[in-house]
Amino acid sequence: MGLLLMALIFWTMPPLSASARRQMGRWSIRISIAVVLLVLLRLGLPWLAVIGTALVAVLRFAMPLLIRLLPLWLLRRANAGNAGMPGSSGAGPGFRKSPDMTRAHALEVLDLAEGATRDEILKAYKDLIKKVHPDRGGSSYLAAEVNRARDVLLSDDSK
Fold first, then answer.
1. Which pTM value belongs to this model?
2. What is the model's pLDDT at position 9?
């Protein structure tokens, strides 16, 4: 009955700021835990109440640490499949650096013919990077490939 009353009060309240919602959420969790523990004590299960209290105390201290470590664990887990592969890098989940790009592959990426001038390379690069850049909804992998293709072609031209 108490939980139903709390839910009714929560849904009929006006919209709150984010900090007020967070604070209200913290207090509602504390009140819910206290109600559950009181019910358990009333039912004659003090051992279960003690275990519940200990669990709450442990989680209170462990959760901030676990929340901080979760992104690192997820990143390590995502990169575990790349371990030992040639060209693998820690650039992000699923991102694999390809081996050295050849001039032919660079020309294919930028859709250029052999003998393209520096201006043609830069124009093709600018046109393509506008389409595949991650800031414009493109892929990080494709943008990296386009950048590498430009670097390969321009470094070959300077030799």
1. 0.40
2. 64
